[in-house]
Amino acid sequence: MLEINVKKRLRDFDLGVKLDVARGKTLMLVGDNGCGKTTLLNLVAGLDNPDEGRIALDGRALYDSESKTNVPPEARGIGYVFQSYALFPHMSVYDNVAFGLRTRRMAAGEIKILVKDRLEAAGLWEIRKAKAADISGGQKQRVALARALIIEPRLLLLDEPLSALDVRKQAAMRDELMETIHACAVPCIIVTHDLRDVACMGDQACLLERGKLALQGGAEEVLRWGSGMNAK
Amino acid sequence: MASNQADVSRFDERSLVELVNHEHETIGKAICIPSRTREVALKAGLALLLTLAMTFIALPVVALFLKSPLDTIVRSLHDPMVMDALRLSLTTSTLTTLIVVLMGTPVAYVSARFHYFGKELADSLIDLPVIMPPAVAGIALLVAFGRMGIVGHYLNAFGISIAFTTLAVIIAQVFVSSPFYIRQARTSFEDVDLAFENAARTLGASRVYTFFHVILPIAMNGLISGAIMAFARSLGEFGATIMFAGNFQGRTQTMPLAIYTAMQGDLDVSLCLAIILVAISFVVIVLVKTLTRRVYKKC
Prior knowledge:
The structure holds 2 protein chains of 2 kinds.
Chain A: E1 2-9, E2 14-21, E3 26-31, H1 37-45, E4 52-57, E5 60-64, E6 69-70, E7 78-81, H2 93-102, H3 108-121, H4 137-149, E8 155-159, H5 167-184, E9 188-192, H6 195-201, E10 204-209, E11 212-218, H7 222-231
Parallel strand pairs in A: 3-9, 3-10, 7-8, 8-9
Antiparallel strand pairs in A: 1-2, 1-4, 4-5, 5-6, 10-11
Chain B: H1 2-66, H2 70-77, H3 80-113, H4 119-131, H5 134-145, H6 152-157, H7 166-191, H8 194-202, H9 207-235, H10 239-244, H11 255-263, H12 267-293
């Protein structure tokens, strides 16, 4: 279970969010550009610090302003897929996926087996030697997801994982992504602009407006928000 | 009668249309010809300016080669003054580049990634030696590290003398060439997307591991081209070296100083050294251009 209760002063408004995500559930975070969605993911990942509050995963505090706990990002065990995918351009597909295991000083033989399994499952084994900069958008998305999942994260954060793909690929990747996330059985937060993503992939959804949770509910309710938002 | 009138009016209409067309053509030509002439004149002017600029830069270099027959250069290469200067210049410039890279890389990274109190001042100080006249840099180093200098005074008490030694050559070169590396390295680090660093951290990499395995390799081409620029600048250093280190053959007389000294006696030696420096400059330009072209695509 992921528990978030944080406050942070941003340039134009105050971010104040309180929400929980249960194990194996996917929370879809929607909202306009600049409403604080990515900032919230960064706070959870430890890439940015809240001004006050608490973030806990499975009962263990990752950040707690009262007890002055702040676990560094490398020790949080969180799988984060960035909007730009952030694949290391000087490394091959194989090295990108193996990166998280090498930082854990795992034995080379073990790394080889795990990376091979992961790349084969994602259909990326054939392009394992290609430089990350030279592969297609869909392949980059798969590599980024494989890289985040191979470390067996306790929490998954995905920042607009489908936005860099064209519409046709989005539909195919949406199903693939949903299957992979459900197989992990960890709490997951996905930031998106697309209400179809929310309806297809989410268990619960939140609408963030200027740093505050404006609406919260089941994913099936989102299409009603959409019509409400359009009416506004 | 009516048909006659119709013919006349049709004739008038036709002639009017022809007249208008004719006038349009005439006006069109009147507008077209000067604009085309202006365009040609502009292009010719630009071509002339470009040719003049290229000639101005190329002429002295070409003259250097024309005035130095190959056999004279080869003979001058055996001159002890040339060999000493070449050896000293290459040794000191290599050591300078190593020092600049080791000291400048962390400075450039901190400057590119972090905001701290006095950052503006620190950045201006780093850039200062670029605009400071080399002779001023030489005097400044002398009053800092010379025998009576504010630091040299204390060093002298321990029997350490820096001024007019090979170490002084290296210090002068580090002083004038470090901004060339740090500025380039800072830009290269700034160009590395913060998302790469963040991705590495979430995958379990410490700050140090991230720096050596992600940031440094991505910024590497820029760092190498900065190091080459610093090497070239230290190789050509004259003013600060002669003021702070003096002009002693084999000890502090680098190639530019040797060119200056030989000018007063044997011009062939001077030309030989000059040609070696020009050749190195060419290699430096080619290397920097090749490396700066190879930039990683964003992922």
